[in-house]
Amino acid sequence: MFETNPDIVRISAEPISMWNGGPTRRWAAVRCPEATMPTEYGGYVGNYVCQGCMEPTVGVYRVKRMSEVARIWVCAACRSPGKAKL
User: Stretch 16-39: mean pLDDT, rounded?
Assistant: First the structure.
């Protein structure tokens, strides 16, 4: 059997907004499996994160929620009629 080493720290990416009102992406200060693309401001980014279901996705669409004035960035599943998770 394998035993886990408590001294090893797993680095993971956290979702952050790329700019005020912009799409959310996975971001990490150091390169990790979830964030591999370097940014010009430091750190690494990975997949987009849907602001509706908060799941990683390959792309997002900017849509307006019916109950709000502000627009959000959502995945195809949250954007499609009848399947909206918003």
Answer: 90
The 10s digit of each residue's pLDDT in 52-70 is: 899 999 999 998 877 667 7
Q: How far is CA 35 from the centre of its chain?
A: 10
Give the structural domain span for 51: 14-79
Whether 9 maps to a domain, the answer reads: no
φ, ψ for residue 57 (rounded to 5)?
-150, 165
Separation in Å, CA 39 to CA 36, 53, 62, 67, 82: 10, 25, 22, 34, 37
For residue 52, the Cα-to-chain-centroid distance in whole angstroms is 11
Query: Considering only 9-13, 18-22, 32-36, which range has the smallest mean pLDDT?
Result: 9-13
